[in-house]
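Researcher: Here's the sequence for the chain we discussed earlier.
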Amino acid sequence: MDHRGYGLSRETTGEYTAKEAAEDAAALADALGWDQFHVIGHSMSGMVAQRLTLDARERVKSILAVCPGPATGVPLDTDGEALFKGAVTEDEKWKMASHMVTGSRLSENWHNMELGYFRSKIDTDACLGFLRMWTEPR
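Model: Thanks. This is the structure I predict for it:
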């Protein structure tokens, strides 16, 4: 599923919270006719998977959270906040953050490809909203 502001849901706006994203996932399961389901979430979506499991525990058969952000959030210091907020619109900050989170293990070509994908598939307001979710859960 693409979260609001991302990929095929890029034009869908919202509050960009874990609760809202979990409600969206439950609504998708409803539309698919699934009374119960397994949940997989990676990184930010791992936070959403945790929230969905709490909000719809009778429906969630299992959860697999891959490198999830903790449900309590990840507070950033002033420099970290400036880097990640800047990465939303500034290519050099995006690349710095990308190298940081990947341990600089990947090629510059990979980072350039991912940056192009990021810019073409992600709404700026959604990215900032989900960054707020990541750092200040509500």
